């Protein structure tokens, strides 16, 4: 059965569902033995801030919120201090906080979110997407590899190194 997918900006009324999705992902990371998202971030305030700033996006499956991500154009100070080198130096879209609800896990929706993210970038005449993840997040590392993201080096967030990737569209 075909799923109807929609990707749209998150609204205030979505925040509690988004927070539940992020809590699912935080628990998954912990159960996988990852240290990513085990330090109180992201949290409900992060979600509310994303929405207020127009950065939060939700993936809906048949009208139900199934995934979340934050998209930020040209603004990630940690990326200025990369230990390595980005592929491009122009405009870019940063992807943060990609998470899928436990109710929809294992259906390939992370890849779908990234496809929609590429559409958002192109609609804004931006042809570079940058993303980072923990060294101990094999699920996201595999997705980035499958989708053609190239490893560029390390960036640092809240005192820990993260693998940084870029895809040129």
Automatic annotation (TrEMBL):
<dbReference type="Pfam" id="PF00583">
    <property type="entry name" value="Acetyltransf_1"/>
</dbReference>
<feature type="domain" description="N-acetyltransferase">
    <location>
        <begin position="5"/>
        <end position="169"/>
    </location>
</feature>
<dbReference type="InterPro" id="IPR016181">
    <property type="entry name" value="Acyl_CoA_acyltransferase"/>
</dbReference>
<dbReference type="InterPro" id="IPR000182">
    <property type="entry name" value="GNAT_dom"/>
</dbReference>
<protein>
    <submittedName>
        <fullName>L-amino acid N-acyltransferase YncA</fullName>
    </submittedName>
</protein>
